[in-house]
Amino acid sequence: MRTKSALVMSILLLFVAPLCLDSAADASDTTLNEIADKPAKKKRTLTPQEKAEKASRRACKVNICKALAGEGPPDGEITCDIVKTWREEDIEEMVGSRVSWTWGDARCESKLSLDRKMLRDAMTKRKITVALPAQTVTCRLGRKKQEEPYKVVVDLAPEVTFKNGKATDAELNWGQVDAPLAIYPLIYSGTGLDNQTNVLGPEVVKLVNHFTGKKCAEVGAKPSEAPAPDPDAEAPAGADEDEDIGPEEQKVEKSEARRTAQR
After folding, report:
1. Residue 16 phi, psi dihedral angles, 5° rounding
2. β-strand 106-115 against 135-141: which pairing, if any?
3. In this structure, how many other beta carbons lie within 10 angstroms of the beta carbon of residue 71?
């Protein structure tokens, strides 16, 4: 049961990481293992496809980071076509030695849409929960013997809570799943499990904070350099006005309720 759960969660990470604009396994980017304080992988030569994907993600990253730092137009949408190819060896490392990855490379893509004002508020408000519009992620899992890849399509509507510019809680809110019968039960059970227990929430918090910190610094747009939140500003709706949030308070708050069914 534990090995199956590890495989399911690793597959779901394939869907999540591109949305967080993580560029795991790219030569000059940070891997998921490095985020978890594990040794980084050796640099490798990128394929033309991987180079094109990376350039596209970087352009999106620059726009988002500038919005987080208060640069550029104050309003409007940032839209990006996010594509990420995961190499088989990288997925095997994510899955771990306890589980055998039976497929090949995986290619995931999604159209990301973010509101500029929402991004700025996440960095400057005392406390705010950001609800992203519903996102659709498509992954093609390579198969051996030159068979057609499995095509998996999942919907999710992430919510991330920020306190003083730092993500503290996250929920992915998985929705519709479309996958071949051979893999559908695995994906469906995984999304249902995460909706009930929020297993991946802490991982998303790590990815978001890593992106708004180190990744944005790499493109010269650090949200930490943005004006500090106004202590006299009105607290957002739902916030405890007497709550004293210090820099040492970084624990993830428990969600009031978890979704217990996908549909």
Report:
1. -75, -45
2. antiparallel
3. 15
CB-based contact 207:17 (threshold 8 Å): yes
pLDDT in tens, 27-65: 334 334 443 444 445 677 889 999 999 999 999 999 999
Place of tokens 């990481």: 17
257: tokens are: 């309720």
Q: CA 114 to CA 59: how far, in whole Å? A: 14
Task: Name the residue among 154, 167, 161 with its Cα closest to residue 195.
Answer: 154
Q: Chain-centre distance of CA 219, in angstroms?
A: 19
Helices assigned H by DSSP within the chain: 2-19, 32-35, 48-68, 88-95, 116-124, 184-197, 201-210, 216-218
* Nearest-angstrom CA–CA distance, 40 and 43: 9
Question: pTM for this structure?
Answer: 0.76
* Whether 241 contacts 235, CB under 8 Å: yes
Domain parsing of the chain, residue ranges: 2-223
Is the CB of residue 118 less than 8 Å from the CB of residue 97? no
How does pLDDT run across 188-206, given as a tens digit for each residue?
A: 999 999 999 999 999 999 9
